[in-house]
Amino acid sequence: MKKLSMFQMTLLVVFGGLAIAGVLIFALAVGGGQSNTIGAVKIWGTLDQNAFSTVLRQAAENNAQLSQVTYEQKDAATFEENLTNALASGTGPDLFLMRADYAYMDAGKVTIIPFSALSQTQFESTFAEAARPFLAQNGVIAVPLLADPLVLYWNKDMLASAGYAQPPKYWYELFDVAQKISKRDDTGSIVKSAIALGEYRNVTNAKDIIATLILQAGGDITSYDNTGRLTPALAPRAGVASVQSTASALRYYTEFADPSKNDYSWNRSLPESQKSFTSGDTALYIGHASELARITAMNPNLNFSVAPLPQINSSQNAVNTARVWGLAASRSGKNPGGAITAAFLLVSIDTAGPLSTALGIPSARRDILNKPTQGNDDFFNKQAILAHAWLDPDPDKTAVLFQAMIENVTSGALLVAEAVQRADQEMAHILGL
User: What's the superkingdom here (predicted)?
Assistant: First the structure.
């Protein structure tokens, strides 16, 4: 059996004092006459079956404890519903891949890892900043595995034809880029677009984009008050000195969907933005690092590259966001002790690195992100290090909230400030306040 790293050993030894469903983790971390398996552990997730299973098989060859750990890919569209039903009926997985924006909502489905086993300090020093939603008041909801940052994909030929050798570094530069690249036909319809911003329904990653703009502007979306209660933060509270971060972000975002503006670049009648970019009709596309393979496959002849997401100005520290995946132990799983041990083993540097490579998504571990590598992998790792996060109370409901906030402005139904205030009120409703 492969020797455990100090990080693994520390976690497993500490867990040795905790009886979880009658299983002592410490007994699994020592050699000698101990069992060389943690038992059957079933993992559910929405990431690629072949990549995940291949790495699991390779890891099991080096560490027999993982010999009965299996992974099953599920449909992302129905994952939450199926998981909830399976856990209620006792047929669910022992571990499941949890996205960090579901951590607040799904915390009741998991066995919380106490800080006595994985301290907050150790968590923060080991895992990327964007993994913070996995931290609860009483422990760790899921052990971070992957961090998928937003990046800027850019069409080299379209930018070159407009006189640009590089994509914009700052958001204000996009106004000029949009005026030079976006083209309309005689009827006023957009035939070439600089970037897909301003709408929601056909802008891939619209929610992540507007959330990032808010964070870059110095705002937040939710925050804890002094009583420890999660509250809305889209609109400034009475008596609090605050810049109108959400309003400025929303005003900028919707600018590009206003037909009366010279930088008009997008409307909801256009194709979905990832498809428009891969077709060569949109010059700039904001997507996640994990989308690189799909974009390449959709159009192998597309002459494009990747760059950091634009920032507000050079005086601020760069801010980005990422979708973070973690391994969560099901509260109703049949093998909770084995599940938590498997989670620690899978996020070890020996396994987390290969999983990151196989899935094409940066690791959530700081030490792996800091390792020198080549090409796009090095770039994506650096963007994952920059990434931050906000605590999402219910991803599906907040998606509706963001869509309404944007469309209330683009339709002219509400002024920007009014749309922000209504969104803030809706966030309070989602939070049950």
Answer: Bacteria
